[in-house]
Amino acid sequence: MAKPARPIGHHGIIGDLETAALVARDGTIDYLCWPSLDSPTIFADLLHAGEGGVFVITPELTDPRTSQLYVPDTNILITRFMAEDGSAEILDMMPFPGSRPYPDNTEQCLIRKVTATRGSIHFTALCRPRFNYARVVPAVTTQGEAMSFEGGGLALTLCSSATLKKDDGSVLAEFALAQGESAWFMLGEQPKARPDARMIDQEIAAAVGAWRRWIGQSTYKGRWRDEVYRSALALKLLTSSRHGSIAAAATFSLPEATGAGRNWDYRAVWIRDASFTNYALMRLGFFEEAKAFYGWMSKRISKADDGGTMRIMYAIDGSEAMEEKELPHLDGYAGSRPVRIGNAAHAQTQLDIFGELIDSIYLFNKYSSAISHDGWTHVCNIVDHVMRHWEEADAGIWEIRDSPRHFLHSRLMCWVALDRAIRLAAKRSLPGPTTQWMECRDRIASDIWTNFRHPNHGYFVQSRGGTELDAALLMMPLVRFVSATDPVWLKTLDAISDQLRDDGMIYRYRNADGLEGGEGAFTTCIFWYAECLARAGRLDEAQLSLTQAMSYANELGLFSEELDLRGEALGNFPQALTHLAFISAAFFIDRQLDPSHKSLWQP
User: Fold this and answer.
1) How far apart are alpha carbons 24 and 566 in whole angstroms?
2) Is the pTM of this model over 0.85?
3) CA 152, CA 473: separation in Å to the nearest integer?
């Protein structure tokens, strides 16, 4: 097994609500898709060290200590280098859309500002993009004092206050800065006017102000405020300002187990994850994102109503999700082959998505805007679909690549779809066959209680007639299907702790799923578990579990999809599902610890 050049967790993320870059703790940008989150990469050294494309800035310091932090309440990242012979920092950002001081100059860009903070320091900068998933080495040409990279239908321009020179398909800059001096780099479309230091500082100031205005809308004032805000800021980076959609993660093919083959592309819009993300953002007081998402989603539902099929995921622009392909020319993170783009799960049947979607619509209607006539028609059509199909087997929330099964979680979320539609109809006096809906909802509940229990121990199980557990069962009290103190549920909670929990971490399941190789612990499930403990009244355990789970974030407060036995990051990063699960757990536990807190949010 190869050792990664830069571990997953040793990264921060920056973005402009269209794409996002990962910046490593050593000052290297080793992951960036351009111009959109689901476009091909221009930097992908994270997935093929030395050949994938990279933008690195290195100060010549003796054994520096490196660290990263965000400018408070923003997604503007600072990487610091501290050594006995000097110190330096790199500020990385992408402009916030709609707030730029020079909006006509260039549509999208990456800005890097380098400063010597102590001593006089020599720096080396190397910009070596490799377009189209590192399949194209761009031609480098001189454009006055700037350099352009062209190839495969893409052209980017690098401008800098430092002198740039060509170097074998790359651009190199070597420069020295005295204490307090700065240099800057800007990569993007060719600007209409040459940037200068004043322009760069104005871009930074505008982005700082925009991010702070956005996070300032939050109504959350409870415990873990800084951590909750960081999760909200991470979720915001996964939203598309152009389309209104929300991606599941910023990356593709980062492995669930190093050296294994479970490497998937999460740069798509899962109905489940996006609906949960809206729930989390609305809880914190962010409603514009929900409005934008429902505008995007209504178009997808309309197509399904016209005879199409409702997909479990879509491309960010709302088109069909990309077909799954392997990129054999890439070695993968730490030698984890194959590297995949696209996701074959887009063709799966996952019946749970309708529950998450209608629950999200119900909450949006309750706390933001009343549902329209057309919107209610869409809900009724979804409910009709659920009533016709809820008894079928599917691939489930974990997208098993095996024979379909009758998963409890899928049944549960079909129950949620009907239950929330019934509640919405009653709240808004909306027309619909609610008597039939209630009868179907109750049949689903009876089916769960009768057919999804362990034959000997009586607790709930993963699939009909089975005996295995599934961490997705932790959703049962969170969606109010069962009381959090019901004896059968408490048996289930303890069984999950005994069989799926290991050293504070929780695994999704232990049984076969049709794939080779193992996987790490699933970070989201630890937060679900903590919230379930709190709902059961076990607050001391809940606080400890939450604190343990929070410790798995990196120094910036970012969570990955999974964890190895050392608690190090695995899987795609940062992952929306983990951050929103943390927000939910923190929100509920804070309220339980402070009963006097009167939140506007009462789900």
Assistant:
1) 20
2) yes
3) 47
From residue 224, alpha-carbon distances to 221, 230, 530 in Å are 9, 10, 15
Token code pair at residue 562: 């999974």
CA-CA distance, 181 to 204, in Å (whole number)? 16
d(CA 472, CA 132): 37
| Secondary structure class of 70 (helix, strand, coil) | strand
Pairing outcome for strands 146-151 and 139-143: antiparallel
- Which pLDDT value is given to residue 598? 57
The candidate with the shortest Cα–Cα distance to 302, out of 354, 377, 367, 357, is 377
What is the distance between the alpha carbons of residues 56 and 78, in angstroms, rounded to a whole number? Answer: 14
Amino acid at 346: H
Query: Helix 523-535 and helix 539-550: axis angle, to 10°?
Result: 160
- Please tell me the distance from the alpha carbon of residue 125 to that of residue 107, in angstroms, as a whole number: 24
On whether the CB atoms of residues 217 and 154 are closer than 8 A, the answer is no
Query: Mean per-residue pLDDT for 8-16?
Result: 98
- The alpha carbon torsion through 345, 274, 17, 301 (nearest 10 deg) reads 80
Task: Output phi, psi for 245, to 5 deg.
Answer: -85, 170
Question: What is the tens place of the pLDDT at every residue in 115-163?
Answer: 999 999 999 999 999 999 999 999 999 999 999 999 999 999 999 999 9
Q: How many Cβ atoms are within 10 Å of 537's Cβ, its own excluded?
A: 11
Q: Is the dihedral of CA 221, 225, 231, 233 positive or negative?
A: positive
What does residue 87 show for φ and ψ, rounded to 5 degrees?
-150, 155
Tokens representing 524?
């989201």
What is the C-alpha separation between 584 and 359, in angstroms, rounded? 15
β-pair partners for 269: 314
Average pLDDT, the chain: 95
- At 359 the three-state DSSP class reads helix
Q: Round to whole Å and give the CA distance between 539 and 525.
A: 17
3-state secondary structure string across 377-420: HHHHHHHHHHHHHCCCCECCCCCCCCCCECEHHHHHHHHHHHHH
Nearest to 85 by CA among 109, 65, 108, 115: 65
Alpha-carbon span 55 to 32, nearest angstrom: 10
Q: What is the spatial distance between Cα 128 and Cα 151, in angstroms, rounded to a whole number?
A: 13
> Beta-strand (E) ranges in 40-181?
41-43, 54-59, 65-70, 77-83, 86-93, 109-118, 121-128, 139-143, 146-151, 154-160, 165-166, 171-177
Q: What is the mean pLDDT of residues 434-459?
A: 98
Q: Specify the DSSP class assigned to residue 460.
A: B
The single residue listed with the structure tokens 């929900």 is 290
Helices and strands (H and E) in the chain: how many: 14, 25
Residue 89 Cα distances to 182, 350, 404, 534, angstroms: 10, 46, 52, 42
* Among 484, 476, 474, 556, residue whose Cα is nearest residue 522: 474
The residue count for the chain: 603
Residue partners of 190: CB distance under 8 A and separation at least 6? 106, 143, 146, 148, 155, 157
Band of pLDDT at residue 427, cut at 50, 70 and 90: very high
Spatial distance between the Cα atoms of 160 and 546, rounded to a whole number of angstroms: 45
What mean pLDDT do residues 349-376 have? 93
